[in-house]
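Because discrete structure vocabularies remain unfamiliar, it helps to consider an illustrative case, giving the amino acid sequence and backbone structure tokens:
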Amino acid sequence: MPGYRGHALGVFVMAIPLAFLGGWYGLGVLELLQGLVFMFWGAFFPDVDTTGRGRRFFYALLLLFILISLLMKSVLIAICCTAVGLLASISRHRGIFHNLYFLFFLTAALCGWLVNVIPEFRLEVVWAGVFFFLGCFSHLFMDFGWRRTFAWRS
């Protein structure tokens, strides 16, 4: 049960082999640094069901997504973002936000929406989603270990 320092260390440990893989895939230094930022966000994201700065940051980003959705007349997306925010506020710690499959679905849905909103940055959005999800995975792995990370229920 590491705190935020442990999760940050987990991101750095994961970042070393990913830097080599990213170089192999042709990602530059700037893209890898952006990926590191998204990995940090992903590593801290599962704890949005706790009180603190992370939750306030999450709600600020969620409000931004809701406003953008409403400006683009995407009411369904705004409703989905609101539902995720409500889930974060009522779920228990280590509940649904500590489920690998839920986090994968949430990341894929957000990336799919962003690819439709800004198609000229499709590749960047996909890479950001991959790095974000890897950060989520590192968080769950550090909290639960190998077996419980892949369990359907937490």
Observations:
- The mean pLDDT is 82.
- Residues 4-149 form one domain.
- DSSP finds six helices and no strands in the chain.
